[in-house]
Queue: 2 jobs
Job 1
Amino acid sequence: MAQAPVYLFTGPEAGEKNDAILQLRVAARKRAGVLDEYTFYTSETKFSQIMTLLLNESLFASGRFVVVQGAEQLKKKEDLEMLSSWIASSAGGSSILVLVSDEISCDKKLESLIPKANKQIFWELFDNRKEQWLVHYFKKNGYSISADAVELVLEMIENNTEALKSECSRFFLCFQPGHQVSVEDVEKVLAHNREESAFTLFDALSSAGRSPAMRLETALCILQKLRLSKDSSGVQLIAGLTYCFRRLRSWHQLIRENPSPSELDYKIRGFSSKKARTQYQNAGRLWSVSTVGQILALLASSDMDIRTGGAALEDILLQGMLYSIVLKDGEPLADSFSPLHQELFF
């Protein structure tokens, strides 16, 4: 029986997940030859449009390789019916659909459509495995790294191998092959020249022991740095914050189900590192489950406002969004800023 051409990859470990997608892509190219390749996000593209693309034959390629991020959003009956119909009619074909989510699981009806052999959860690595991965990554590129430096890197960088690859590749530009990376090198390359991101912004928003005014001030400074960067994108920034607040929702679920989680409980939910636990414990004190839901709704509406409002309003919309998260727990601001708000942001 021909294999269904659909896969479901879930879980927080982005690096291994992306490696698995790459392996599928390479195998598909070898098997089918030229492929049309696409990546879509459920927050940006209707699933019906993606299905229409898959159903129509390509004029210049043997098939299509389609990756859909945000598979946890696929719940509508009509979307699942279209997917089921496509799977049934496309077994053995050249096109492949890969559904991806940072969540541990997706809608049960969606999961039931995917063959067991084509589903995989990519758990966050335990700390000892991350240490091994990091040492091997440096060795593979012709470098070594001290044990203390490994520990510091893991404390500073978002806990998945994709983020580790991105950040640690900087060392290869700063030092000659054969160099052993030390704690001093890590502080110089990562701490002193650390780029801001949605993750550092979330860290500032949820900083423990700081007043709301101080957290907002720091967050607005980070936002300004991000907006001045070459790759500034309000939509991508909101996507990163949405990921963080979804993880916070998972943290609340974990603590509600088990007030004293075991190491395995933490790992299953993607909080195996001490840094992540501390960060989300602090965030959990600031924002309750209901508040997190309100903030996620705010992020979704801000995303829509930016897409429809154009670049002219992007900065003020992002500033207002941060103001609402810190000082109003995600409650939407008034349709127009008062003179007080305008004075605060300009």
Job 2
Amino acid sequence: MKSTFYKYQGTGNDFIFFDNRQNNFPKSNVKLIEKLCDRRFGIGADGLILLENDNNTDFRMVYFNSDGNESSMCGNGGRCIVAFAKKLNLISDETTFIATDGLHYASVLDAGVISLQMKDVQEVRIEKDYVFLNTGSPHHVMLVNDLDNLDVKADGAKIRYSDLYGKSGSNVNFVKQLSDDHFRLRTYERGVEDETLSCGTGATAAAIAMNALGKTNSHHIELDVEGGTLEVSFDKLNDGYINVFLIGPATFVYEGEVEW
């Protein structure tokens, strides 16, 4: 079968998209998804995303990691699928869609910037050396001094596969504070099993974690990731966080045809 694919990236976090409203994509074929995401033998991407029909919202987002397995929420992928839906003329400048972690609202701003509402965060677990929270995906967040020379892949893998998180593991974020409302972030992503240029749920987790730790009083935080800059805004309600938005560019790269 031959099918059209679309490539998008959000601050360097790149994805293969298929319009799967006709249910033609073999999404149980883990090996196929893994091959399509392979940067040497396939198209190459951090993940693969299907846009599908949904009865109650504009569309459904189904996300797969580059290892071929369906995964939890992807913030950069969520912003990119909004740009993809607009390209398909499914939406105008506002949308609601459903993903694995529930309902999302998003809007298209100027210059291809997408503002995506993330899930509320009810619990932030503060430990001695790290913070753990779930922003649609699980995230371990820790402050480091020398972010430039950190071996993110090696150090991230140690935590991801440690007894802390068991078989399912966690994404791991290393953060350096630049100013009161400005941080730098590098992320190890499970499923990719490597550092990625950006992680949307990771940026969201890092911003909330820094507020929970008292490192910032700001509710609108700028985060420099390896592939660009993201913004996260939120409101604090008791010990939780609501009205959480991830804001940043979602860029169309190219489209093509692939046969399997």
